[in-house]
Amino acid sequence: MQQQLKTSEMASYNRQDWVQGYKSQPQEYEYWIDDIEGQIPPDLQGTFFRNGPGLLDINGQKIHHPFDGDGMVCAIKFDNGKAHFCNKFVKTEGYVAEQKVGKILYRGVFGTQKPGGFLTNIFDLKMKNIANTNIIYWGGKLLALWEAAAPYRLDPSTLETIGLDDLDGVLKPGEAFAAHPRIERGKNGNGDRLVNFSVKVGLSSTITIFEFDSDGKLLHRHAHTFPGFAFLHDMVITPNYCIFFQNPVIFNPLRFILGLRGAAECIQFIPNHPTQVILIPRNGNQEEVKVLEADPCFVFHHANAWEDGGEVFVDSICYESFPNIDSGADFREINFDSLPAGELWRFRLNLQEEMVEKEVIESRCCEFPTLHPERVGESYRYLYIGAAEAASGNAPLQVILKIDLVTKERQIWSAAPRGFVGEPVFVPRNSCKSEDDGWLLVLMYDAANHRSDVVILDAVDISKGPVARLHLKHHIPYGLHGSFASNLLS
Ligand SMILES: [Fe+2]
């Protein structure tokens, strides 16, 4: 069995190719992209922002996990059929300090330690805000997000760092702002809304919900406390609820305190323990909070949620356990076969009977779901997601998969064998006629040329291949999340 999986792994990609995409990119660039296959649609107007770890080492000292890497933001501005590229590091306090001395000064949540063994790390619990997870433009501010701290604000035209931002006094000193806000496009006569959260963990965990209008003005803020340690990276919204999956994990911080492990390495999955589905009313009414039990699984990301009568549906990427890497191992050498693969599951929550049913929609290894932004919080037909080339087994993401959730039809665009894809971002056409009438923007790593491409796919039929492929002059390390801002250009 082990041998068969190895064979399938070798058929879809070469490990050395994959590893090259994790090389640091210390350079900052700014140029008009002139090496383009195909044609950039002239009506694609706006800026594609993407965030992710830019450094996988500090002056040769290796970062233990990519999630610990300093945030580097890319901006690809589309303007009348041309595209301009810019990347800059978020000049966080930690980035500036470490670059100045040329060595690791901070421990990372995912296991990066200061050189010198546990005695150098013991009792050092301060965290470096690496601002590396997401990037959004909201209320006139461009914000680099990291879930355990406040966002950093950047200048949207230059990507220069302005500084830590408390959202006009909304965030209290030390308060965090998660990296997964959900945006609801004007519903029921309301304007656009941004809903986000922060979590304070301990023996019990407190979730604070923030809801903003399109000017960035706070409309609602409410907090709710639940028993147990909650590892919450993402949430979904419906018109009435914010929905969280409390993963069945425990957190024993002893080895973190003693300087032996990163905080996230002290999280342990509890097999056969139900996942708690937490529904918090958007109106903040504590009496309407519901907690339901679902099959055990581990969730980083949700795709979408919606209400239908007395039921709520949630589509999520589920792992059968927490996919953590052995603390002694280098992530570049991970054995994919030893880690669970993400699958797309649909949960049907019956609020009256407090029952949850689950259905597997896609068992191919997949992550980073996206959809038409106007379908967030309501029923939807088309889901786009990064996936493995092979239909089974765990492997790096090399294809973009489109799933028609009504007909169950699939379309695939593959970058294999030497291409590796990140999160797709859906951009609707201005005169959008159907839910899939738009483009998908994907930053992919091309190992054959050790560079990255910005790939534009027609979301109606991704199997046709890219409408345009923009070759960058360099590579961008594998990233995390991004967004599209159409309102930056006048
Ligand atoms: Fe995420």
Could you characterize the architecture of this molecule?
There is one protein chain. The chain has 490 residues and is mainly beta. Helix content is 7%, strand content 40%. It has helices at 2-12, 15-20, 93-101, 118-121, 254-257, and strands spanning 30-32, 36-38, 46-53, 57-58, 61-62, 71-79, 82-89, 134-138, 141-145, 152-154, 161-164, 182-184, 193-200, 204-212, 218-227, 236-237, 241-246, 249-251, 267-269, 275-281, 290-294, 298-308, 311-319, 343-350, 355-362, 366-370, 382-387, 399-404, 410-414, 419-421, 425-428, 438-446, 451-458, 468-471, 482-485. Strands 2, 30, 31, 32, 33 and 34 form a 6-stranded antiparallel β-sheet that branches. Strands 1-7-6-3-35 form a 5-stranded antiparallel β-sheet, with no helix packed on it. The chain has a 4-stranded antiparallel β-sheet with strand order 8-9-10-11, with no helix packed on it. A hairpin with a 5-residue loop joins β28 and β29. It is globular, with a radius of gyration of 21 Å. Mean pLDDT is 93; it is low at 1-9. The site of fe (ii) ion (FE2) has 9 residues, from β22.
